Amino acid sequence: MHSRISSDSRALAPFDWSIVVAAIAVIGVAIRAIWFTPIEARQGAAQKIYYVHPPSAFVGMYVGFGLMAIASGVYLWLHDERADLLAESSGEVGLAFLTVALVTGPIWGKTVWGAWWTWDARLTSTLFLWFLIAGYLVLRGAIDDRALRARYSAVLALLSVPLIFFIHFSVYFFRTLHPMPIVLKPSSPSLSPEMLTTFALSFVVMLVLYIALLRARYRLALWSARE
Amino acid sequence: MIPDNAIYLEAAYAAAAIIYGAYAVSIWWRARRYRR
Questions:
Q1: What would you report as the CA-atom Rg of chain A, rounded to the nearest whole angstrom?
Q2: A213 within 8 A of A96, measured Cβ to Cβ
C-alpha cells in the first residue's frame, strides 16, 4: 500500500537560512583555497582544483546517491511516499554535485595529463553513472501513477549501487590515469598540513551545501506531492 | 619552476559556481509556483 504524505508545516516553511549559510561557507573556503593555501610546486595553481573536484565527487556519489539508494530501499520496504520523495531529491542534488566533478575533472586533467578526457575505467564508469541517474530523473517525469513511479524508480536507484562500488575500486582494478586516493588511504595523507586543512574544510562545506540544497529540494518535492 | 596555469583554476572554480548557483536558482524557480 502506497502511503501518501500529509501536510507538514515545518517542512513547508517558505525560506530556509541554511542555503545562505552554505553559500557563505563555500565562498569562505574558496577564498582560503585560492589565497591562503600554498601552491603545489609541480602542478602549479591548477592543483587547487583539488579542493572542489574530489569533495564534489565524494558528496555527490557516496552521500547523494547513497542516500537515494537507502531511501529507495526504505520505500520498497515501507511504501512511504516521503522516502520516495527523499530519494528523488537526493538523486537530483547528487547529480548536480557529480556534474561539477565531471566538469572540473577534465579542466584539471588538461593541466596534468595534457588531455581533457580519457576513456579509462574511472572516468567512463563515472560518466555512465551520470547518465544512469539522469535516466532515473527522466523516468520519474515519464510516469504519472505515483505508486508505480516510486516502485520503478526505486529499483533503478538500487541498481546504481554496484556501479558506485565499481567506480570506487576501479583505480585499484584497472590501469587508469586517474590517481589513487592521497588522503583516504591506509597510510598518512600525502599533503602538507595547510593543504590538508583546506581539503578537510572543503569536504565539510560541500556537505553543508548538499544538506542545504537537499532541504530546499525536498521541500519542493513535498509541495509538488500535495498538488 | 612552478607552471603558470592559474587560468585553469579560475575556469574550474567559475564552472563550479555557475553549476551550483544555477541549480539553486532552478529549485527557487520551480518553488515559486507553489508559494503563490
A1: 19
A2: yes
Every domain of chain B and the residues it spans: 1-36
Which chain B residues in 1-36 lie under 8 Å from chain A, judged by CB atoms?
2-6, 8-9, 11-13, 15-16, 19-20, 23-24, 27-28, 30-31, 34-35
Question: pLDDT by residue for chain A (227 residues), tens digit each?
Answer: 666 665 554 555 556 789 999 999 999 999 999 999 999 888 999 999 999 999 999 999 999 999 999 999 999 999 999 999 999 999 999 999 999 999 999 999 999 989 999 998 999 999 999 999 999 999 999 999 999 999 999 999 999 999 999 999 998 888 877 777 766 666 666 788 899 999 999 999 999 999 999 999 999 999 988 87
A25 inside domain: no
Mutation for A interface: B1, B4, B5, most A CBs within 10 A: B5
Number of domains in chain A: 1
Question: Which residues constitute the domain of residue A89?
Answer: 48-226
| Amino acid identity at A36 | F
Whole-angstrom Cα Rg for chain B: 17
For residue A222 the three cell numbers come to: 513535498
Q: How far is B36 from chain A (nearest CA, A)?
A: 10
The verdict on residue A152 lying in a domain is yes
Q: Are A15 and A9 in contact (CB under 8 A)?
A: no
ipTM score for this prediction? 0.95
Beta bridge partners of A3: A80
Query: Is A64 among the domain residues?
Result: yes
Tell me if A209 is assigned to some domain.
yes
Give the residue carrying C-alpha cell 510516469: A143
Picking from A22, A10, A8, A4, the residue whose alpha carbon sits closest to that of residue A84 is A4
